Structures
1.
Amino acid sequence: GGDCAASENTASCQQGGTGEAAEHYRLGQQGPASYTYIPGADPFQIRIKYIGGTATDEGGTRSVVVTAVCDPNQELFVSYDGETGSTYDEILFAMTIQSRSICLNAGLSNNSSCSSSGGLSIGSVLCIVFFCLLSVYVAAGMA
């Protein structure tokens, strides 16, 4: 399947194989996403699940979950954490993005007292996550 074009509102893409035999699968669309704040997590975390990816041959779906983690010492680090599930139901791909840009307050080490004095809003964090995913998508497309 070659359905990972940016015009399809792709959130993330998987490539299987190389060269002419390479298969590309959309792991989710940016529109139908769910956002979950992880209460009490230290460091601060938000989980975003993108659904609507390429169907499997068995009729299942592909989705991706991105966990955005506050790391005041990290400019940007993206990792692939693996996949779970079944091709008959749902294959869930997991990624983690660690960045200081995700932190609500620069001096916040324990998010038990999230205040609105300074820092980034949830919308800003989601925009950062979107552009990080877009950068990974473009970089993977050029590789």
Note: The radius of gyration is 16 Å.
2.
Amino acid sequence: MLFYVTSRIFPGKTFAVICDEKDTIAHAKANMLHILYELGRADLQFRFRFRGEYLKDALTLQDYAVGDSCVVELIPLAKPSAAVSEMRRSSMYGVKNVDTDVMKALEAEVKIFKKREKLLANLRVALWVLGMAAVCAAGTVYWYAFFWQTLFFLFGILKIPSFSRLGGFVGRTGLDQKRFAAIFSVLMFSNLIASLLLALLSIYDEIVDCYMAPGQSAANVTADGGALFGGEEVGVFYGCEHQLWYSAVYFCMDSIVVMFVAAYSLKLWYNFKFEIGTYIEPRLIESKNIHRLLAEAKSGRLKNQRNAAFELNNLAATSQDNKFKIVTEGGLQALISLSLSKDEATQEYAVEALAELLTIPAIQDQFIDEGGLPKLMALLHTPNPDMVNEAAVAISYIAADNEDQRSAIATARGLEDLCYAVRSGDIDVMCAVAGIFLDLSMTPVSRAAMVTTPAVGQCLVFVAFIVYVYISH
């Protein structure tokens, strides 16, 4: 499957990424990191967005319905203007913005793939040497070695895969690269054993069968080439001593060449076990040190806070265990503070993380006890529609799962805040707010508050009209 990646920080460029639909988003990001490495931008921190939704590293492309020829956006962690300035700064001063562990993993993979290119290039040269050696085998005493060596050469030269670090394996060989390396290794070790045996036989024949005792004359040689010692025929005298010497030298040299080729094929077989993302993918989805992330969140540096909000968001999306770990370590207060940051990117990641945490009812109670609801309501007044949508989604989780807290949403200007959010004109926000009103209407206290608030009725009529127009067109 092939999908395309575009970004405003790379105007006029579209990147093609090859993945399987069952690959994780982290695997797709690993592919993108290799492309950015070639552009000298491997230190750029980014995430993917598809159809307005940010993609979580631990989920798969299939989970987000990213199919063949789809277009995915690359969104830097910083806003585009800040991202460009950071990229210029990193290129001028060598400052690394990306996670150090991810950068090390990327460099390790690049090293492996560069080595793969070199191994395949050297193996091609070695195969042509084997091909020429196979022709020379026809002149030996064991001339039939020519046939199997020629077959081994043809198999290797026709089936060897072509590889480039950016394009991956290209062309068609009709054989999986790992299977090729395994089969070719077996063939080369078989050839090595055969060459060693034939070299020993040639030396043995030279010493025993072609040896003439001192003083032996031509009369000692029988008509069929046998040598007479003490009146008895002890062996066949080939009469072409130079051919035996040639055979012995040839198979000894051939054994050395085949031994090196076999070693190369084993190295290739081991190298083929590594793919793009082998090192990077685990680094992207592994559980980060929550203590370190919370320390960064509380630091005064904007870049550290942004990175902490992003990582906590990814952690919260990975598993329920991580959600509880974040809350246990005091992550709710840190995320609430980050949601009020002056940096829009930091705000957005923090609100997304809060929305992920609030999917669990037990965390909702603690969030409200710590005074998070009024601050979440305040975010409905921000001009960023994405942030308003995330805040509305987070509130919808509380309204849907927590009957006791619905009254808290309906009071303290909560209904007015929700009606104000509808003014953003975003259809997703409208649907989220309509869902919240539906859940609030299930509780008598909140339903009574809705009835006594005129703005709620106007808001619902407006939402119904906009949704009708949207569906009609």
Note: The longest helix spans residues 100-137.
3.
Amino acid sequence: MDQPNGSNAKATRVKDGARDLPREISLSYAITIIAGCIMGSGIFFTPHETLVNSGSVGLAFIVWISAGLLAMGGGLCYCELGTSLPESGGECVYFTRSYGQLAGFLYVWMTGLIVRPVSQAVECVAFASYFVQPFYGASSPSSLVVSAVGIVAAVLLGVINAVSSRVSVRIIAVLTYGKMAALVGIVLMGVYWGAMHGPGSLSTGFAGTTKDPKTLGLAFYGALWAFDGWNALNYVAEEIQDPQRNLPKGITAGLLLVIVCYVCVNLSYFTVLSKSEFSESVAHLVGIKVLGQAGLLFIPLCVTLSTLSAACGSCMTSSRILVAGGREGFLPRVLALVHKSRSTPIIAIIVHSFLSSIFIAGGTLESLVNAFSFIQWIIYGCAFMAVYVLRWKEPYLDRPYKVWFWLPGLMTLASAYLIIDPILENPSYLFIMLLLLPGLAVFFIFIRQQMKCSALRQLNDSVTMASMKAFNSS
């Protein structure tokens, strides 16, 4: 077991001379990053899926509250991990310290190169769909136009994040305040409609509640997808001012804000619409029913603000996974380079934006959402267990925040249910794990060999030195 290290290596561990990222994220910005990354397209589209799989309004409402509590439980576990190891990259650092290099690399392989770029691609496509819709009136824009606008959004967000993290954080904050105001508008629609026309589908209560635990699991998946992003602050822990204090405060305050918003917005949906009126465009239907033609402009505005904020936050936070991968030697070291004057990981941001653009151009993103939610909960389960593993392996590690002993175990059990339930419903989910096979091949053929082969190390060093000059980075 490790002995005390006093300063926790100042809570940052920089590999191979790579620079620290500056601490520019205050508590208020930390809260807006959490809220901005969570509140994307999910609250506008998943209520229909949650209601269908729950069977009743009452159970759907309980599912939303429970999903919020699960997210809060997960967030508290991540508070301990993030304050103990406040470095860029989140789970990449936690898995490497807890389970070893192979686990850390496979995380970067699955999440940094596939899951997170796809997640941003989904938000950019949702933004593009609603941004261009008013220009097409009653008709629908072509998929080519939507993809083109989505790629432009991904590239522009990448440029903004590469130019200045400070500007990016402020943009996230402004967009988050805007979408909070828009969500308050939806809540006020529900209050007005309830006062004029009664409680709507809320009056049906628990009528039609499902008794199938498999479909209930799918209902949770929809709600939890809308809450995904509660770990975003851990990716940029290295950049938070006083992370030992502000990271826990940012996660808990941001999540409480989101939970209250989601509960109130769902109450508004249930008040305005009957069960039979619910569809995937639930927010759109509420806007038209209450505001008439004005709703055709108001709801797209809500969605564009929400998705653009989430996409901007995703670009900022997800690129730090690639930074951590470069520092640990799982990816080319150039990804860990930080621009000398702008203090941004410019190469990692470029690569992340490029991957997101590729997935946008490839299409079929909707079919990937549930698949990657499944992967995400495997990762979360491993992270919750890492709390116990690190307490055992590194008992002297400074832990400014220590979560209740029972909570990581409870969250691990919840993760196990959310992993097993989809497999029982659809065994084809197991085929997703085949994505690990090329990752294993890359690790044993290239990563392990690079540690032994001087030629591979020299190649990596040469590329790094050339990139340092080309991108004015160190």
Note: The chain has 17 helices and no strands.
